[in-house]
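Q: Hi! First time asking for a complex rather than a single chain. Here are the components, and I think there are three in total. Is that enough to go on?
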Amino acid sequence: MFALIDCNNFYASCERVFQPNLIDKPIVVLSNNDGCVIARSDEAKSLGIPMGAPAFKYKKKFEDNKIEVFSSNFKLYGDMSNRVMSIIAQFTPNIEIYSIDEAFVKFEGFSEDIIDQKCREIIETVMKWTGIPISIGLAETKSLAKVANRIAKKYSNETRSFYSINKNSKHIKALKNINIKDIWGIGLKNEKKLLKVGVKSGFDFIRLPDNWVKRNMSIIGLKLKKELEGIPTLDIVEENNNKKSIATTRSFEAEISSLDDLIERITTFAVVASKKLRTQNSECNMISIYIRSNPFKENNERYHFSLTGALPFSTNSSIEISKFAIKLLKKIYHKGKSYKKAGIILMGLTPESIHQVSFFEKDTKKHKKLMESIDNIDNKYGLYKVRLASQDQKRIWKMNRQNLSRNYTTNIEEVLLVS
DNA sequence: TCTGGGGTCCTAGGACCC
DNA sequence: TCTGGGGTCCTAGGACCC
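A: Yes, that's all I need. Here is the structure of the assembled complex.
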């Protein structure tokens, strides 16, 4: 059996742990830059605050309803996540951490009663040790466990936020009651495609012929169909800390149209991304960059220019990476247009330890030493004290975070005082 | 004035190879 | 008159997830 363990309203719950006076009160957590809503407590949901709501449009509603607003505090959420995951891992080693607030667990060789009991114990222990409420869905496949989790959440109360799809009748009922768009792996495009052929529920979906699904939704769609039928096609994915791509992307405070300004931003993004690369001891051999217009401006021409290029050799030097990124940028830059967001994505990541030497490679040993020194200075005196000349010397970027909570669990200066 | 950011996987088509 | 068949690798773009 597979279990999907999911923290309820995770970011909002993290804030609540340290401000228990907010229990039963509406809470929202905003994205970076206080842009839009990315987490809501149940109370905020029932006041009609949608996911992704732009904060500036809902300001009045927040005030009128006394909704507590938080800027995102990812340091806190990341630390709380680690705590929750390590508790779950004490119950079973067969765990896949799927996202910051979700984990799949596979139970093998246990009777159903034992599994049920373990799930309940996990819920209790996580609550007791961290204060985070979680829900568990249990079923024979990962996709069905996702469905079961939705049901658990929908009908949860203090003692019961657990649901098991363990009988054929429950299986059919669950699929009949779930909208096609709420199924894991069905996004906007697939929903439209499916509605066109009259598929509204999960049950309608599994009655489609396999070859139609394969043709229209690729192998991913077909695997999903099998999963929903109860035939496992997805297994627990072993933990791999090394990423396959590393991105640094940001919206600008105001639109930018000059090439020089874009060069400054892309250089800064490249420096930040290269540092992430060095932190995981990798190098990259491909770089992709993009610049795009503001999609929210009405009647605005929409454009998104991007370009990917292979580096002549693998590197994690901020200097090489930013130089190459600027080369790409110059090729996609269109004069006279304005841009609201840009990003750099490093790809083709390989371990630093097995560096493949290239015939055309320049001597990068100097860079290696230089980067080491820069990283050491950063560690000692704070981030980005030493910069490339093409970066803005005054700032990395501004982030608006008006309602940031404390780092209760990661900074000794900010722990709660109890009197 | 104001609308995150960071990932994964798959496919089609082009450019090669023998 | 008449021009095969089977591959690989790379890139751009699409779709999805949290």
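A: The longest strand of chain A covers residues 339-351. Let me know if you'd like any chain examined more closely.
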